[in-house]
Amino acid sequence: MSAAIDRLFDSTFGARSGEVAAWLRGAALDWLFVAKATFAVLLTGWLAMRFNLEQPGTAMMTVAIVIHPQSGMVIAKSFYRTLGTLVGCAVAFAIVGAFPQQRVPFLASTALWIGLCAGGASLQRNFRSYGFVLAGYTAAIVALPVVNHPQNVFDSAVMRVSEVMLGIFVAGIVSDAIFPQRLGDVLRDGVRSQFANFIVFVRDSLRGVLPRVHLEKAHLRFVREVVQIESQRSSVVFEDAGVRQRSPRLRLFNHAFMAASTSYHSLHHLLNRLQGAEHAPVRERLMLLAGELADALGPPGSEPRMAAQAPALAQRLAGLRERLVARASELRVGLDARGDRLDFDTGAELVARIAAELHDYTNAYAVLASPYMARGLAEAPAPFSHANDWAGAAVVVVRATLTMFAMGLFWLDSAWPDGAGAMLIATIFSGLMATMPDPLRAIRYMLVGYALGLVAGIVCVYGVLIHMDGFALFCAALAPFLLPGFYLSARSAWPGVGSGYLLALLYTIAAKNPMSYDALHSLNDSLSQLLGVGCAGVAFMLFAATSDSPWLLRRLLRKLRMQLVHACEWPLRGLLPRFESASRDVAAQIVAHTRAGSAPSREGLAWSLAVQETGRAVIELRMALAQVDVSSRLRDDIEAALLALAGLYANPGRERYAHARRLIASAIDEAAAHPALMSPLHLIRLALLDTGAVLGARVSEPAAQETLHAT
Amino acid sequence: MPREIAWFDALVPTLLPIFLASLLLQWGLDWLVGRFGLYRYVWHPPLFRLALFACVFGGLGLLAMR
Question: Torsions phi, psi of B44, nearest 5?
């Protein structure tokens, strides 16, 4: 469909009509989504009434929650929602069966289950977290309405499952079969632009020097892209069998990208250190070498059409590593000082490594972009590792459990007839919002949307629906109220307002056949809903999420530094992709939980860059150490240095810093006979010495006095 | 076949296990078609998948309910 719209606009406005056409195209896609979503909701309502389901409103709400402009997202979300619903039902049986007549243990166990599910959700990155939340509150949805008649729990469960499943199926079919906007296309565009941008970035910056600030900015962009591609990859596998076949290749592509970008950062870090006249010979030679690599990437300033050129580029890069190594040994002549040689060797090896890694990266892209199915990989690529902070998850568990339990006790003690509704809404929100980057802000938007939706719902039911008769008129009455909600959720200016509005609207309307009109009940219910959302907000203020809690942020930073400790200590097998992905995952979490440009965000980025470069050098060192035959004394020295480095990153401090620096300097003196060990050691020391790097700043010791070279 | 089966003493419509079986079968077929890249010859792959599923489920259901 998007292709058809493109053609239409191209023929109307001409190919270069620019902004107007782009805006109209976006608007057309938004309205297409709005139309599809409204159609899906109404179709679900009709089917649910035909099937005599108890609450067609629940099925319609399911559609409103699940539907998303991209069909891969809908199917992924639906898949996990199905699993979550089934598990939640099973748990509801168990809880109702265990405590049919005791209110407090019943509430406590439900609250605990919901808390545990919310905590599990916060450990997941994609829609799997949504499945966890669902497993939690489906138990409450099934168990709470039958709390006074426990023998009805089975019927209640069957009804809820049928309604939810109906909603899921209709949403999936409508979004996938009618004018689909495919997530696969979005992912393909993302991969293509990532590849083109990175190659152009490397080519244009290889000839110059990137200041640290720009490096951090580029690092931030790359981290975002890596995490985004991984998250889209995990959803797109539900959409298209063709993409599913390519999924391992995509992983390989992402790993190659991570490796290349880290090496590239290290090279620029080294070049930054080599400013100043005394380093000019080394710097100029390294620039010559880098220039050869840049030439292989194509003439500067040209905007490459990457999909077509990738195979040719891969061919040009294929033998480059060997040529660069040969050229480096020519250039090396004339460098006499030992320190200069060390700097040059390290830089030359980095350039050669970047050439090899860019070759892998280009190759991975060329295979990915070719329309033909590639043969399967001999070895499955390493999965993308995530790193989680258990304390954050524990806060989520405590928050959700206590919210639910407090609301439940209030409900029991006050004998408030609508207490169950308030409790349910509070639980749903404390679970759903816990996975958002900035929950307090999200819940504020949600509350606004919710209030609007309640008012709209009451107007719709008592102003319009009450005069209507028959399903066609029902649709005609409902559609004008649905459209703005879906439009708001399609445009992401105010995230959450649209979905809050839709939830409240559909909940208030509570479509049934025949409809029941009870104004008193509706008003009481609305009040309890608002109170529930408000209570969830209070819970988020009391038990702050990561974005508002310096304690959790500090823990995330520590988690980031611990990645380096793992790089020093964990077994080597599969360590590199694991380190590269897990450290970026933590960095992405820190970035997501902080405001862009704020002090904690910058600190996190600086740490992330330091961890990335040092960790990579540590792994290279350990790999070299495993291959080279060295004396046991040197081996012991290097291992002691790594241990000291790990200790420093685990607990930064002045003495540990000095200790690690000393040990690494002496290891460099020892290792002079082994060039393979020298350059990673040198890189580690550079990262340590760098006053700009956050480790030096943190231990507040002017590191610049020490000479850069081991003389 | 009977219209309903007792499964742990709960009456389940026979079509439900058939539906689940056709989902499995559909998943296998989808994997095969994707594996050999046959979706490139299809105008509208999602619609094709949906139609394939309708055929599988309809066929199995009619066979069982004969």
Answer: -135, 85
Say if the Cβ atoms of B39 and A71 lie within 8 Å.
no
Interface size A-B, in CB pairs within 8 Å, comes to: 34
The 10s digit of each residue's pLDDT in A426-440 is 887 877 777 777 778
Percent of chain A at pLDDT > 70 equals 89
Report the residue from B10, B34, B50 with minimal CB separation from A242: B34
- Look at A177 and B39 and tell me if their CB atoms are within 8 Å: no
A287 touches A374 (CB < 8 A) = no
Residue A452 tokens read as 């609007």
Inter-chain residue contact B37 with A176, CB threshold 8 Å = no
User: What angle (nearest 5°) sits at the alpha carbon of residue A444, between those of residues A68 and A410?
Assistant: 105
Q: Give the pLDDT score at A39.
A: 93
Name the 3-class secondary structure at A24. helix
Assign A544 to helix, strand or coil: coil
Q: Which residues of A touch B33 (CB under 8 A)?
A: 241
Q: What distances in angstroms separate CA A125 from CA A230, A366, A638, one per listed residue? A: 10, 28, 37
CA–CA dist A525, A419 (Å, integer): 9
Candidates B36, B39, B46; nearest CB to A177:
B46
The residues facing B4 across adjacent strands are B13
Residue A299: its pLDDT value, please?
66
Q: Across the interface, do A240 and B33 touch by the CB < 8 Å criterion?
A: no
Predicted complex ipTM: 0.83
Both structure tokens of A422: 């308030």
Residues A350/A263, Cβ–Cβ less than 8 Å: yes
Instruction: Report pLDDT digits (tens) over A363-401.
Output: 788 777 766 655 556 566 677 777 777 777 888 888 888
Q: How many CB atoms lie within 10 A of CB A16?
A: 7
Question: If you count them, how many residues does chain B have?
Answer: 66
Binned at pLDDT 50, 70 and 90, residue A81 comes out as confident
Q: Please give the Cα distance from A173 to A78 (Å, whole number).
A: 11
Chain A positions in Cβ-Cβ contact with residue B8 (cut-off 8 Å) = none
Chain B neighbors of A154, CB-CB under 8 A: 10
Q: Convert the pLDDT of each residue in A628-677 to its tens digit.
A: 777 777 778 888 888 887 877 777 777 777 777 788 778 877 777 777 77
